[in-house]
Structure formats: C-alpha cells, structure tokens
Amino acid sequence: MKIWERYTDEIANEKFDVIMIGSGMGGLTAAALLSRAGKRVLVLERHFKVGGFTHTFKRGKYEWDVGIHYIGQMGSKDSFLRKVFDDLSDGELQWAAMPDVYDRLIFPDRSYDLTAGKENYIAELTAAFPEEKNAILEHLKLVRLVNKGAQSFFANRAMPSLLSKLSYPFMSKKYLSLAGRTTADVLSDITSNQKLISVLTGQWGDYGLTPSQSSFAIHAAIVNHYMKGGYYPVGGARRIAETVVPVIQASGGKVLVRAGVEEIITEKNRAIGVRLENGAELKAPMIISNAGVHNTFGHLLKQEVLPRKKVDSVPASCGHICLYIGIDQPTKDLNLSGTNLWIYPDYDHDKNIARYLDDPMAPLPVTYLSFPSEKDPLWEEEHPGTTTMEAIGLAPYDWFSDWENSRWKKRGADYETLKESLTERLLENLYKHVPQVKGKIDHMELSTPLSTRDFVGYERGEIYGLEHTPDRFRQRWLRPDTPVKNLYLTGQDIVTDGVTGAMMAGVLTTAAILKRNVIKDILARQQA
C-alpha cells in the first residue's frame, strides 16, 4: 500500500466526506480519528512529502528530522499521549528512550542537567540552589495547577458555541489565572534568584519566547511534558506519517502530495470545497484547515469572516535557522550522546534575545544541539557508518525578507553570504561543546525561515504557529469551529505548539465535529 500519492485529475470524480488542508500532525490526527468514525477523508499536502514538521529529508546517505527532536510521556503505554499515538498508528509507532539526562543547559560558568523523573528534577536543582528548595517545589506545584486547569479550558473549545460561551467563565478561570500571566511574572512571585529563574526557563527555545513574553501556561506545559524524560520515534520522525496514513487509507481516505490549496470555496457562508493551485476544484461537505490561522483567514478565505485586526492581534511565533550536519563515521566512534544541549551566552534570556534582534552580530541567544543518529536505535541499520546532528538558533523572518520572492537554491550571493555567516556562528558553539567533530564534517547545509515558509507553508517561516503569549490564551475565537459553516480549524494554533500540541488539537477538532467524547473513544479502543 502506498503511503501517499500524487494528485491526478481523476480525484475530482471521487466523493469524500471531509477535505483536510495540510498533513501536519494536527491534520493527520483529525483525519485518522474521523476515519475511525467511518468518514472518508482526503488530505491535501502542498509539499512533496507528508507530515509537516514530522517529515524528514535526505541528502545522499544522510537523513534529518525537521521538527521532532524529542517527545515526552512516551515511556509508559498507560500515558494518555502514548495511547493517542498508539490509536493513530494501530500500535505500529514505537519509541526509544533518550538518555536519562535528556536536556543539558549550558551557561558560561556551569551546566545543569535535566534528568528524567520528578525526584531527580528536584534533587539536581536543589543541589545547585540549596537555598531555593521551597521555590523549586512551589514552581512544580504551579506547573501541576495550570496543567490540570488546561483540561477543562481546552475541552471548552470543542463544545458547541452557545454551551461553550455559557460555561467558559467556569471552565477557564483556573487556567487563565496563570496562563494570563507571563512566566517571569509568576516565577518572580516565588523567587528573586535570577539564576534559578533562568535555569527553570532553560527550555524556552521549545516554544520560542523568553520569560518576560511567554505565558506561564506554555512554560508549564513543556516542564510537565518532559518530566519523565525524552523519547524519539524508532526509525525516525517520518515513521509518524508512515504509521498514521494507513489508518486514513483503511476507510477509503487518500493522502495527496503536490496538491496545494489556493482557496477555500464558500457559498452563502458555507464551505463547500477547495480550489487547488493548479485551478482544479474539489468538493466535500466539510473542510478542515490545518494550514494555520493566519493562512486560513488571511489567504485561503477570500472574504473577511473575522476582522483582520483580530487575526493579526496574535502575531506569528519566531523563525529559526537549522544547520544540518552529516559525518561519514559511525556515531559510536565519535563518543556522542543523545542528550540535547542548550547553550546560552549568559543567564539573562530576555536581554540576550533583545540584544541579538537589535544587533545580528551579537552572541547567539541560544544554540540548540540535537543528535538524531544517536537517538534512533535503527540508525546504524538503516544508515550504516554515518552520523547526523543539528545545530539550531533563532532568526527573525525580516532578516531574510529581501529574498522572499526568490526561489529555493536561487536566492543569490548575498543570501548565501548571510547563511555562511550564521553557519560559522553555529559551528563555533558546536566545536566548543562537541570538539570531537571538528574537521570531520562531510556535509552541512543551513535552512532559514524562508525554507520553513516554502516547505511547511507558514507565511513568515514561524516554527511554533502563533506566539504563546498570555494574550494568545485569552483569544476565545481560537477554537475548532469557525464563523463559516462546515469549516473547521486544527493544528498547533488551536491548542499549543509542537507535535503533541498539534495532535491534541486534532483530537479537539474531531470532538467538535462528531459532537462526542473522542478521548473516551480512544481510551476504549486501547483497552479493547
């Protein structure tokens, strides 16, 4: 059975219950769950690969993931998130545990290890900050509190509009009491130790906002998500799409590549189909957009169904650069670890990013190093004698906007010069902290926000959808249903960022469409 197929004109003669725009994690999740409910779903992907940020790409004998560097809560089959993945993949998707030290936060004077397990988390932070144990415990208490409140807050978004409106004050109060404040504001209430705050927020790159800007809710979601360690898909990130697509196909659904959508066709404020970039029109009684809020309301819908001012009030998240590195030696010969490294120039995350945005030649505010070949137990079998790694940093889209109308690999000498400069700066941090790879790199190439725009479809090359500020979580219109009848949204703009955030958005969207407790259905299938 083919995992996906290319668009042909014959597809217009087939009938589908649902058209899904985009094959990222949110789209694949909703498509699979709707297929489980007997719907025939057509997934349309503009790229030549399926999966959004879960896809991989190859250069010769090397292969890299583009968005998945680790997933939390996959160690136990009793974990709810694991149950969802198992349901989506018919149990075919397997997970490998990363080292117990899944993240290492590196500052100029010392490093801090984040080790799997709550007790280890407490013990290691308390050893580094013995006078701050009460603050460390209070931090975890608040993390639990806001994550517990998230359940009713997001469930409210799947309810019919009237019921959602009536119950919103009660279902959102607990969550918004903390989600409506910045991370820095909440943490400043429990400690004045700025070093501790910097370490507690050392994973801010996982959502792209520094403590003074981010909602405490997204900080708490990340801390909780990885508390039991990190995991990586066996066989690489591409295995997610490879195991989910057959579930869609089993109900007669199809997943098409090179099938970019130009417009959502509406009639009397009702979505009735889509117009592709090649001009073809496909009809279905229900349309779901996994293309992001800005793309959906700003481009795919040609009429204004929400005030543009409202849509633009929640800006896009940050862009990023990623240096993909290949080495023609086995990972074991390089003495590498699967531990992710977060490298910072000093303890003031907010000052670091502000300085960098003001002066691109300032120290990189964060460099993140990931080693996928060390995380995947099938790597040596599938890619013998090779090693891959990734060095990631932040870079705003505006730095590259002069080339936004140019084509991939044809952006000119100035663009390549800028990329070379950024590459050298990422390599500087790589060689400092992983010196054994210096002089051994066989292949490397840098992606920019333009790469993200072209291959994933986000307008400004953002990696995390909408910014996760306190204001984002106050936007009651960020929900699966829309003012257009039979048009729904899914993806990381609806819940939170990342693969599991997008996946849970797919669950919510399916619940809103079917008007039933989809979570209960998933649990029942996994217990059968």
What do you see in this structure?
The structure is a single chain. The mean pLDDT is 96. The strands form 5 sheets. Strands 9-8-17-18-19-16-20 form a 7-stranded mixed beta sheet. The radius of gyration is 22 Å and the shape is globular. It is built from 18 helices and 21 strands. Strand 2, helix 1 and strand 3 form a beta-alpha-beta unit. Helix 1 runs parallel beside helix 9, helix 1 packs parallel to helix 17 and helix 4 crosses helix 8. The protein is an alpha/beta fold and 528 residues long.
Short summary of the structure?
The protein is α/β, with parallel strands linked by helices and 528 residues long. The protein has 18 helices and 21 strands.
Count the beta strands: 21
Task: Please report which band the strand proportion falls in: under 5%, 5-15%, 15-25%, 25-35%, 35-45% or over 45%.
Answer: 15-25%
- How many domains make up the 3D coordinates? 3
Low-confidence stretches: none
Helix content: 25-40%
Structural descriptors:
single chain, 528 residues, alpha/beta, FAD/NAD(P)-binding domain, 3 domains, seven-stranded mixed sheet, 18 helices, 21 strands
What's the layout of helices and strands?
Elements: E1 5-6, E2 18-21, H1 25-36, E3 41-44, E4 56-59, E5 62-65, E6 71-72, H2 80-89, E7 95-97, E8 101-106, E9 111-115, H3 118-128, H4 133-157, H5 161-179, H6 183-188, H7 194-200, H8 216-225, E10 230-233, H9 238-250, E11 254-257, E12 261-266, E13 271-276, E14 281-283, E15 287-289, H10 293-300, H11 308-312, E16 320-327, E17 340-343, H12 349-358, E18 367-370, H13 372-375, H14 379-382, E19 387-394, H15 413-433, E20 441-447, H16 449-456, E21 487-489, H17 498-514, H18 518-527
Parallel strand pairs: 1-11, 2-3, 2-15, 3-11, 8-17, 15-21
Antiparallel strand pairs: 4-5, 6-10, 7-10, 8-9, 12-13, 13-14, 16-19, 16-20, 17-18, 18-19
Helix pairs in contact: 1-9, 1-17, 2-18, 4-5, 4-8
